[in-house]
Design goal:
By secondary structure, this protein is mainly alpha-helical. It contains four helices and two strands, in the order ααααββ. The protein has a two-stranded antiparallel ribbon. Strand 1 and strand 2 form a beta hairpin.
Amino acid sequence: YMNLTMFTSIFSVVAGLIIIFNNRLIVSIIPLFIGIVLLINGVYKLQLAYLLKTENEHYWLFELIYSILIVCCGIIFIVNPFKGAQAITEMIGIFIIIYTIFDIISYFVIRKKVKNITVVKRGNIKIIEQKED
């Protein structure tokens, strides 16, 4: 256990120093790594789609289309890592916008519900009750 801890600690320090002093290298490697992972995952899902088809599962076509998209994304990340990094940044931006929209909707829904709720303190206990309309 101690040897593993020492190894992972030294590895983490070295990795941290490499990231600090060679951040451009790391930024260029991350999309390539993501591309390899996507490509492997896509090929696995292609096999799964084939298996689903042989088992007469009705959603095999969805799995096939999904796996082809994953393979294509993986190839794009491998062939052009900087385009992949740009795509990741754009997707993060889209997710932030979607998250914010849902957060605003949630705010209005909860605000409407909270108007019908009161907190009554009885001794040291707070009780939440719904107001009668």
